[in-house]
Write a structure and sequence with these properties.
Strand order of the largest sheet: 1-2-3-4
Largest sheet: 4 strands, antiparallel
Structural class: alpha+beta
Bound molecules: zinc ion
Helix content: 40-55%
Number of domains: 1
Strand content: 15-25%
Distance between the termini: 19 Å
Radius of gyration: 13 Å
Number of strands: 4
Order of helices and strands: HHEEEEHH
């Protein structure tokens, strides 16, 4: 449990002003991340967290210095809302990078 507190503190510094449940969802996703290359990650879905797709891909764009996720697709229901709020797939990748793992 206190590992979770450490993870939350790491993540709060990078992504402030989220609810506790948001941080906890990012932590649950940590083990689902597979790095495909320096700026691309594959995430296994967690149906318990409401994931409906086979997988998610998070990308880091060096030009805009921002992350995008395939759940931000405009065709996806709620996609643009999720982009505005930052999804927990991206949050999980940010946490993984912060932990250096
Ligand atoms: Zn996402």
């Amino acid at each position: 449990m206190h590992k979770n507190i450490e993870y939350i503190m790491v993540l709060v510094r990078r992504v402030p002003n989220k609810k506790l449940s948001w941080y906890l969802r990012c932590i649950k996703r940590l083990e689902t991340i597979v790095e495909l290359d320096k700026n691309t990650w594959y995430l296994r879905p967690l149906p318990k967290l409401g994931d409906r797709r086979q997988y998610y891909i998070v990308r880091y764009d060096e030009k805009t210095e921002s992350f995008t996720c395939t759940c931000y697709d405009k065709s996806a229901i709620g996609g643009s809302i999720r982009k505005l709020k930052m999804c927990t797939h991206v949050g999980a990748v940010i946490l993984k990078l912060a932990l250096g793992s």
